[in-house]
Amino acid sequence: MKRMISEIDALRQPQDDKFPELTFRRLESQKMGGAAAIERQHQAGRLTVRERISGLVDVSSFLEVGSLAGTGTYNDANVLVSVTPAPYVAGLARIDGRPVAVGGEDFTVRGGTTFGSSRRKGGQGGFIEDLAHHYRIPLINLIDGAGGSVTSLKRRGHAVFPGVHGFERSVELLGEVPVVSAVLGTAAGGPAGRAILSHFSVMVRNTSQIFAAGPPVVKRSLGQTVEKNDLGGTKVAVDQAGTIHNSAASEDEAFEQIRRFLSFMPNNVWELPPVADCTDSIHRSDDRLANIVPEKRTQAYNMHKLVAMVCDEGSDFEIQPTYGKSVITMLARLGGRPVGIIANNPMVYGGAMDVHSARKQIHFMELCDTFHIPLVFFVDVPGFMVGLKAEQEGTLREGMRAVYVAGKLKVPTITLVIRKCYGMAGMATCNKNDIDLKLAWPSAEWGSLPVEGGVAAAFRKDIMSAPDPAAREKEIEAELKPYASPYRTAEAFAVEEIIDPRMTRPILCEFIALAEARLRADVGLKLRYGVQP
C-alpha cells in the first residue's frame, strides 16, 4: 500500500505541461509564505509545516487535500499572477504503513491564522477532523498558530459568537480514534484548546509555548509583563501544570514520540491494538527481582528499573514523565501485546498519591480503557498525600475521582502489589468490573492504614494512660503485626495469589495473552451487533 501511495504522489507531479494552470497553482502552494518567511521560521529553530509532515510520515505517503486553497491575485486581464496559499496544510498519509489524517498551520502565511473559506481545512475543525471521523483513522495535529484574530472583525463586519466554530467534532473524535497533537510553535486560542483535546500531546523545549492567552493579553488584562516561555513553555505546561503530556528536545524527537505512541494504538475503537513481534522470551525470569525491594520497608527503590525487568525489553514509552512523578504511567508490551502500566514511585513522596499524580493516573486509565489496552498496576502506595498543602490542592477530591474512574474500567486489569497498598488510594488500583485479579509479592502489605499509624489513632486512650506510652504503643503494634501478613490474607483467599517476584513476567504474559483473546471477542460482538465500544 505504501508503494501505491507513492505512485499516486508521483502522478500528482506530472513531467509534461498538459495542465499549466494546475501546475502553476501547485508550485505556488509549495512556496508557502515565501523565502523570507521560511527563513524566519528556520531562524526561530522551527521547521515549516511541509518539512514537519515529511519528517513525521512514511516517505512519499502524503496525499495532500486542499493544495489549491488560498487567495489568487489576478491582473487586469483576469489572468492569475500569484496565489497566497491557505495557512493550513492537510491530507492523508501513512505512519509505519498505517493510514493517518494529518494537518498543521503554516506559520509562514499570516502566522497560521484562520483562513476565511466556506469550509475549513483544519486548525478549527474542518476537513481533516472529518477525514479522521468518517474513515476511522488517527488524527495528528501539528500546531503552530494562535487561531482567530481581531483583524477579522472588520472584514466580517461582526464578532463571532463563541462556539460557532466549536469543538464538537474534536470532542467526538476522542471517543473514536487516537488523537495526537504536537505543539511546535506558539499556541493560543482554538489551536491551544485542540492540543488539550488529545489523547497524547508533545511540545518542544525552548521553541514551543501554549497558553489560553499570550503575554500581550496578560499585560492588558492583569498589568503583568511576562515572557512567553515563562508563561507557557515546557517548564510550566509540561512539568508543573501537566497541560501537555511530554516534551522533546527537537521537532524530530517529537515526531519520534508520536510514532512510538501510535505504535501502541489501534486505528480506532472498533479495532484492537497491534501486536508486535517479540524476541524477548515470555518465560524470562530475572533473579534481580528477588532482592529489588529493600528489607527496610521505608526505604525507596527504583520502580522504573523494576518494571523494565518485567516488560518486553525496550518496549516502554512513558507518558508524562516529568509531571505527577509519584506515579509512573507508561505504555509497554508483554509478549508483544500492548499494556498500560501504572506504577507507584516510592522515590517521590514515598509513592503517595497527590493531586497531580491523581490527574495523571485518571487520564491514563481513560486512555487505555478507550483503546482496549489491558492495565497492570504495580502497587506501592501508602495512601493519599496528607497535610495542609494536599488539602488546599484538593487531593482528596482528585484522588476519589481516580477511584471513580478505576471503578468504571472495562478493560482487563491486573493488580500486582509490590509493597504497600493502603486506604482509598489503594482502591484506585483495582477493577471490580473485571475478575479483580490481585497478585502480590511476599513483601506486600495492605489495609485501611499501616499498623503503626493506625495503632496511634485507634488505641490513643490506652496508650496515653499507660505508665510508658511509647512502650505500650510498640507492644500493641507487635500484637497486631502478625495479622497484617500477606499470607494471612492469602489463607482467606482475600488476595488471589502471592507469587515469587522472579515469576512476575511469565505470569503477567500469560494473563495478558488471555486478556487479548477476550478483548478480541468483545470487539467482535460489538461490531456484529452494531454497538459502539
Fold and architecture overview:
Helices cover 38% and strands 18% of the residues. It has 533 residues and is α/β, with parallel strands linked by helices. The chain has 3 domains: 2-150 and 163-264, 2-enoyl-CoA Hydratase, Chain A, domain 1 (Alpha-Beta Complex); 287-444 and 495-527, 2-enoyl-CoA Hydratase, Chain A, domain 1, CATH 3.90.226.10; 448-484, no CATH class. Strands 12, 13, 14, 15, 16, 17, 18 and 19 form an 8-stranded mixed sheet that branches. The chain has a 7-stranded mixed sheet with strand order 1-4-5-6-7-9-11, with helices on both faces. The protein has a two-stranded antiparallel sheet with strand order 2-3. Strand 5 (98-105), helix 5 (127-135) and strand 6 form a beta-alpha-beta unit. The protein starts with a helix and ends in a 5-residue tail after the last helix. The model is unreliable at 1-11 (pLDDT under 50).
**Total beta-strand segments:** 19
Mind telling me which CATH architecture of the largest domain this is?
Answer: Alpha-Beta Complex
The proportion of residues forming helix, as a percent range, comes to 25-40%
Radius of gyration: 27 Å
Number of helices: 22
Query: In CATH, what is the class of the largest domain?
Result: Alpha Beta
Q: Estimate the global geometry from the Cα principal axes.
A: elongated
Number of domains: 3
